[in-house]
Amino acid sequence: MCLDGSTPPEEWRPVSEFSGVLEVSNLGRVRRPKTGHVLKVRALPKGYVQLHAVVDGRAVNRYLHRLVALEFCGTPAPGQEVNHIDGVKAHNCAVNLEWVSRGDNHRRAFRLGLKSHGDRFRGTKNGRAVITPDIANQIRSLKGKVRQVDLAKQYGLTQGHISRIQRGVAWDHASPSEAASNLNRPSA
């Protein structure tokens, strides 16, 4: 399905890089032209779709959106990258793809809410956070009292991260009022 919800007729074109071995369609599918076998693709953690295939005895991995764009959206100018117009990285229909500059791609991502400015993903809002604001404040309060290396071992962080917390570079937004969190404290 494409941007307007319709499904246009499927058109197949040879993948220039693998001419005669693979074809890509305007609907974002890849097949072997000799057998007509449509190849499986896999979704990556950040939402992109990747093709993994064996071509001439060697394994190749390619982003599906790039294969479709290269064959259906013209030749990119130097430095251009593929933009998913609707912002959904799994929608690889040719009408949903376009070549844009890196700057344009980032501006569109911010406009669609795929990326954000500021502190929207700071602290416990960041899915990779391993401490809470309360722990950051504890670490800050122990500056000069406990060695950074020992704090790093205790909290499962690096000494560099402890240093950044104590200098106010990391977790500088943490205050005692933010201490409520659903993350568990590391054991000593």
Mean pLDDT: 85
- N-to-C span: 53 Å
Element pattern in H and E: EEEEEEHEEHHHH
User: Low-confidence spans: pLDDT under 50, at least 5 residues?
Assistant: 176-188
CATH topology of the largest domain: Homing Intron 3 (I-Ppo) Encoded Endonuclease, Chain A
- Biggest sheet, strands in spatial order? 1-2-3
CATH architecture grouping of the largest domain? Alpha-Beta Complex
Computed structural class: alpha+beta
Can you put this structure into words, describing what you see?
With 188 residues, the chain is α+β, with helices and mostly antiparallel strands. It has two domains: 12-112, Homing Intron 3 (I-Ppo) Encoded Endonuclease, Chain A (Alpha-Beta Complex), CATH 3.90.75.20; 123-178, no CATH class. 24% of the residues lie in helices and 18% in strands. It has a three-stranded antiparallel β-sheet, with helices on one face. α3 crosses α5 and α4 packs across α5 (159-167). The radius of gyration is 24 Å and the shape is elongated. The chain starts with 11 loop residues before the first strand and ends in a 21-residue tail after the last helix.
Task: Note the topology.
Blueprint: E1 12-14, E2 23-25, E3 30-31, E4 41-43, E5 49-55, E6 58-63, H1 64-72, E7 80-84, E8 97-101, H2 102-112, H3 133-141, H4 148-155, H5 159-167
Antiparallel strand pairs: 1-2, 2-3, 4-5, 5-6, 7-8
